[in-house]
Structures are given as C-alpha cells and as structure tokens.
Amino acid sequence: QVQLVESGGGSVQAGGSLRLSCAASGYTYSTICMGWFRQAPGKEREGVAAIESDGTTKYADSVKGRFTISKDNAKNTLYLQMNSLKPEDTAMYYCAADPLCDYALGAYEYNYWGQGTQVTVSS
Fold first, then answer.
1. Is 107 in a helix, a strand, or coil?
2. pLDDT of 95-111, one tens digit each?
3. Strands (E), the chain
C-alpha cells in the first residue's frame, strides 16, 4: 500500500524559505510521477511542481524561479525547496504520486496522496 507522508511545513515571513519533504513507502511500480499541490481555503487544489520518472520537471507559472522540486531515489523522498515566499503561497501543501502522468500538474492524474502540511506566509 502506497503511503506518502509530508513534513517541513510551518510559518514564515514573506521572503523566507521552507523545504517540504515527502517520504514515500510501499510503491512498487517501475515508473513514478510525483508532484506537489496546494490548496488554500475556498480555492481549488492547484499543481505547484512535478517531476517525472526521467527527471523532467514542471512548475506552475506562479512559482517558477522560486520553487525547486527534487527527488532522492535512494531515500524515496520528494522535496520542494521554496524560496522568496509570498503571502499568496499560504496553503495546505500535498504530495502526490502515480505511475504515469501526462500534463503532470493536474490533480486528476494522481491516485496517491499524502495528508498535507500547512505553509503559512505572513507579510
């Protein structure tokens, strides 16, 4: 059974940085597409960044140049380095995984989800 556990969220002032981690276990597929999503109160869940099996990365326009997604295959861990944080980055952040993805930033593409970690950015 696939389990995804996020950590690293917290409260930070605008301009600060946080690094989110997502530890994966029980994944037996030969390919994996992983992504970070976020959802603010009253808003839809949106794709932030994704990384495919071949290492290809994708980012939402709103985070390009500020966020970096990476993966440590030996540790089965996904990361999201978030720099120059803004108040509008405040949301619950979720890790997601699936054997295949196409667009990679669509929530509909992922079958496995973590419970989320809260990120709050104050001005």
1. helix
2. 999 998 888 999 999 99
3. 3-7, 10-13, 18-25, 33-39, 46-51, 57-59, 67-72, 77-82, 91-98, 112-113, 117-122
